[in-house]
Amino acid sequence: MPTNYAEVEETLRRIQSQKGVQGIVIVNSEGIPIKTTLDNSSTVQYAGLIHQLVMKARSTVRDIDPQNDLTFLRIRSKKNEIMIAPDKDYFLIVIQNPSD
Amino acid sequence: MEIVHVYTKLRSEFGRQYLFSDRPTELLVDIPPDPSLAMQFITKTPRDQATQACREMSEHQVNTERFESESRGLNHMEGGWPKDVDPNDMEQTIRFRKKVEKDESYMNSILQLGSVMDHYIRQNNAINIYQDYFTEDQDIDEGQEAPSAKTINVFRDPNEVKRTVTCLSWHPDGGRKLAAAYCCLEFQKSSKDLSPDSYIWDIENPNQPELALKPASPLVCLDYNPKDPHTLVGGSYNGQIVYWDTRRGSQPVELSSVEHSHRDPVYKIIWLQSKTGTDAFSASTDGQVLWWDVRKLNEPTERLVLDPGREGNLDRALGAISLEFEATMPTKFMVGTEQGLVVSCNRKAKTPAEKIVCTYDGHHGPIYALHRNPFFPKNFLTVGDWTARIWSEDIRDSSIMWTRYQMSYLTDACWSPVRPSVFFTTKMDGVLDVWDVLFKQNNPTLSLKVCDEALYSLRVQDNGRFVACGSQIGAATLLEICSGLSTLQKNEKSLLAAMFERETKREKILEARQREMRLKERSRSEQSREDDTGRDADGDESPEQLIARAEEDFYSVVEAERKRREERHRVSTNHSKP
């Protein structure tokens, strides 16, 4: 059943409205940012740097156990947390500030 | 021998039924053992042989070659766009993006990823997984841990021919940089291709020095200006003083003129406390202490000759090897000499003769290090020959505390700037000792073997945690001391003050007693000389009479011993006879 374009928008809007979320970037497998809520320069930076990192992380997991695969990657830093959900062709990157 | 049992049966009785009957046991054959046969047996010693069925393996260790790595930054530009889309053209990129968004697989994957992400975001919002749960238990008692130190970095001389690290100086602003002077101090060992360079190292990067200082002749000592962290002054092997500004590069900004400099290598140079912040003074084994203004290095501003006779005679001057200057007492300074004397001087004296206030005689060899205790300026530490001694300014005759004679020569020492009772020493066998006088006085609290060759210089950073020591082959090692030895303990100052006072008092009493005894001796000898005019012959024994008396004494002692042995022997034989 062809999924509606609106559903995708709805999902992204829901994520954006969660507490602490600072931005969302969707990157394709070639490193091109498809959709973003951040400004252009940050988007390009995130897209390029995180793309390489996810490739490295995925190959690391697979090298240790070929049956294994990367499902999620979190990078916690002093100021915020970068969460990456990888897929075969796209990544969904969310920058959140877990302020408790 | 054949054992045969014959069983006979008549043919006519074949086929009849068997009738079994019981009868008692009957010995049929008895074969006794034949001992002669035992002689023919050869006993074999049993042997244990282990076997194992496995593959043969050998162990081999491999160390990879040192890999030099560099950190570089990477600037990410826009990329990955397909060939027909120009990234700078907004319209094309928007069109491309819209196309991807309409793609079926895109929508599916985003929906799926979205739900996964949603879960984790909510998780983050629910609980802070990095919260500090047990903060109260974090103050562990630090007093129990054993003193330790670990090597952080080793800075090696990049030149082929290795030179000794003769002096180290920390950058005054935070101590991120270390300046090291390299020079071959052995007499006539320096070859033509010995590089005269000295280096400034950044402590984070041990692979390459941050700046090379290129004087005309190798530097024996150098010092950072505490007022201006960009300037350094150094004393070189040929006696000249050199002044650098690190903002201006590796070449010296100014050099002192050869005629007015020292005639021997400059062993120590220290910046002075002055309003302009440009004064320094240097000492050398030619017996002079010279004061300089670095703005005008062609002539020293003042000169002092270390003549113990206070005459300014250069021929009788003592060679100076170390200097000491404390910023809180700007008029006084001390010089350690090659002859083992410490000379205390006053800069502001009216006449040159009064400049030398007093001397302290303590060591058998040159005093390689001289350092005042930063907390108790009246007490200072000297190092020379095989001991380290602590002195009090008031007691001239001897030091108030000293270490045992060590196994090897001590080369450098300094107090810790944070703990008044801790000092560090380096030895010729490559050992760095950390002494804590309040804890243990016979032995160092911590003894570390830094390297196999001799250590020649030592400097503690102002925070008291980092210690840099330099070795004979040009390797400067940076060590971090454990927090127990670099944090001020409670009551430490008062305890150390009490200890110094006690020792000073003891020395004073000893000195007084010595003086008393000497006075008594003198008065007695004077008296006896008056009485002696009458009894001349008796008083004066000639050598032959002395020898005769000695012989008599000797033989009487031998006789007595022999008699005693005979007596003992007789007593023991009497006991054995029943």
TrEMBL record, chain A:
InterPro entries attached to this UniProt entry: DYNLRB1/2, Roadblock/LAMTOR2_dom
Ranges where the Roadblock/LAMTOR2 domain occurs: 8-96
Entry-linked Pfam families: Robl_LC7
Disulfide bond recorded as keyword: no
Cellular compartment(s): Cytoplasm, Cytoskeleton
Keyword Cytoplasm annotated: yes
Record-level GO cellular component terms: cytoplasm; cytoplasmic dynein complex; microtubule
Role this protein plays: Acts as one of several non-catalytic accessory components of the cytoplasmic dynein 1 complex that are thought to be involved in linking dynein to cargos and to adapter proteins that regulate dynein function. Cytoplasmic dynein 1 acts as a motor for the intracellular retrograde motility of vesicles and organelles along microtubules.
Protein's UniProt name: Dynein light chain roadblock
Gene source species: Sphaeramia orbicularis (orbiculate cardinalfish)
This protein's encoding gene: dynlrb1
TrEMBL record, chain B:
Chief localization: cytoplasm
GO MF entries: dynein heavy chain binding; dynein light chain binding
GO terms of biological process kind: cilium movement; outer dynein arm assembly
Assigned keywords, A-Z: Cell projection, Cilium, Cytoplasm, Cytoskeleton, Dynein, Microtubule, Motor protein, Repeat, WD repeat
The keyword Nucleus is assigned to this record: no
Official protein name in the record: Dynein, axonemal, intermediate chain 2b
Organism: Sphaeramia orbicularis (orbiculate cardinalfish)
Region (Disordered): 68-88, 513-553
Annotated GO CC locations: microtubule; outer dynein arm
